């Protein structure tokens, strides 16, 4: 039997493991869209709060939703670039309208996802995640240099604390053990911020001005609007997240020695969809199962959901305290940039890892990867490439992630799902020989 003190400590450990990954999503999106300090504080606080609510939805088993595994949900990192693009092109309302619709889509498709998932083999999901990571790298480098348009962009100070933060993260990964490696990004952010505070000072004004307590406000940034290009983008991101979450579910089922039935997966997807809908209503972001917390379950050997209930409770409590959220908003931009290089690089690495399951002796698979990544990055670099095409076509070419994803899905159908003439001839020849 675990004592209450140990359960609380283990729950807090799970919070630390996912905190940096969860907080950096609103920091990047809010920063890119020009939110002020008050808006940023709300964004970070409500994000933390909703991470706790989303986790509770998965823990609570009933007939409709909840997979009942020790899973922690947080913001989907792969949604950062699409959300920034939607916000810049169509406005804040379109972000949350597309998130709400994508969440509804996940809830509706949950019972049938096993039929859809065959369109998302590793060659597709790996290509999509790689494109997402590569799209994010320029954002990280810009922030490391001080932020686009900064007066001291590229100064020795900015480069010093940016690369210094990255160096600390690398050192922790190299020499840290167990849990310290799990929070390497958090340690790097703290170290970089401390150095910046000592060298130049950091304004604590956002923390002092933030209220002590607040309640979540639906549609804080205004009513949602619905744009088809934005909705299609978020649906594609939701599908990729569902594929990733499936891997987390099966990893946890293996650790906990619990066999998952199709109904369990359906309830897990529904819980994720509900979390995404709530994220849109309360102006946060899409949620997905966090793999870093799976590693903690494995390392600690503690598989009970009681620990994760504590984690969810801590996240909800922290989300109701804006001063806690405001602390994250005072992290200097170059420090964030240094951490982003590691995090977004890890997104690319995760995509490459997923591609590691692909049969590379197949020229068709190589062509799928080459074309999808090429189209995805090409559209990202030259966003006006398809400007002359009809609006309906531009739904699929409005940004690099969608264009690359659609390319990967279509080519996978052509090369791997439609029987080839040679395969038919080989089958016919084998039949004749028999």
UniProtKB/TrEMBL annotation:
Pfam families: Xan_ur_permease. InterPro entries: NCS2, UacT-like, Xan_ur_permease. It comes from the Bacteria. It is a multi-pass membrane protein. Its main location: membrane. GO terms for cellular component: plasma membrane. The keyword S-adenosyl-L-methionine does not apply. Coiled coil: none annotated. It is found in: Cell membrane. The keyword Membrane applies. GO terms for molecular function: xanthine transmembrane transporter activity. The chain crosses the membrane at residues 12-33, 39-57, 64-86, 92-113, 120-141, 156-175, 182-202, 228-252, 307-331, 337-355, 367-386, 392-415. Keywords: Cell membrane, Membrane, Transmembrane, Transmembrane helix, Transport. Belongs to the nucleobase:cation symporter-2 (NCS2) (TC 2.A.40) family. This is Xanthine permease. It comes from Listeria grandensis FSL F6-0971.
């Amino acid at each position: 039997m675990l004592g209450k003190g140990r359960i609380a400590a283990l729950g807090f450990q799970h919070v630390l493991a996912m905190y940096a990954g969860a907080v950096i999503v609103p920091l990047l999106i809010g920063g890119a869209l020009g939110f002020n300090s008050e808006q940023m504080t709300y964004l970070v606080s409500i994000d933390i709060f909703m991470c706790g609510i989303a986790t509770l939805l998965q823990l609570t088993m009933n007939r409709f939703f909840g997979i009942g595994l020790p899973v922690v949900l947080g913001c989907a990192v792969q949604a950062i670039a699409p959300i920034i693009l939607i916000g810049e092109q169509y406005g804040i309302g379109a972000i949350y309208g597309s998130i709400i619709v994508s969440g509804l889509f996940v809830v509706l498709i949950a019972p049938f996802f096993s039929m859809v998932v065959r369109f998302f083999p590793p060659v597709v999901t790996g290509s999509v995640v790689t494109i997402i990571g590569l799209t994010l790298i320029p954002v990280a480098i810009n922030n490391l240099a001080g932020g686009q348009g900064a007066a001291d962009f590229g100064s020795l100070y900015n480069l010093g604390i940016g690369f210094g933060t990255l160096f600390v993260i690398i050192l922790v990964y190299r020499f840290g053990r167990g849990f310290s490696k799990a929070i390497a990004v958090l340690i790097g952010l703290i170290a970089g911020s401390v150095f910046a505070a000592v060298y130049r000072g950091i304004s604590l004004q956002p923390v002092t001005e933030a209220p002590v307590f607040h309640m979540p406000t639906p549609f804080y940034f205004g009513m949602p609007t619905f744009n088809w290009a934005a909705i299609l983008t978020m649906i594609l991101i939701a599908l990729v997240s569902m594929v990733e979450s499936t891997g987390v579910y099966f990893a946890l089922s293996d650790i906990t020695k619990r066999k998952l039935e199709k109904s369990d997966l359906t309830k897990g997807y529904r819980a994720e969809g509900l979390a995404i809908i709530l994220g849109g209503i309360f102006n946060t972001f899409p949620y997905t199962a966090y793999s870093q917390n799976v590693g903690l379950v494995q390392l600690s050997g503690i598989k009970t959901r009681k620990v994760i209930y504590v984690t969810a409770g801590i996240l909800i409590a922290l989300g109701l305290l804006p001063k806690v959220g405001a602390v994250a908003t005072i992290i200097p931009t170059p420090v964030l940039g240094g951490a982003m290089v590691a995090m977004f690089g890890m997104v690319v690495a995760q995509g490459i890892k997923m591609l590691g399951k692909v049969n590379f002796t197949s020229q068709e698979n190589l062509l799928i990867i080459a074309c999808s990544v090429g189209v995805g990055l090409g559209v990202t670099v030259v966003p006006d490439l398809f400007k002359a095409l009809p609006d309906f076509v531009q739904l699929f070419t409005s940004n690099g992630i969608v264009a690359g994803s659609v390319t990967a899905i279509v080519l996978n159908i052509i090369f791997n799902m439609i029987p080839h003439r040679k395969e038919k001839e080989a089958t016919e020849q084998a039949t004749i020989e028999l």
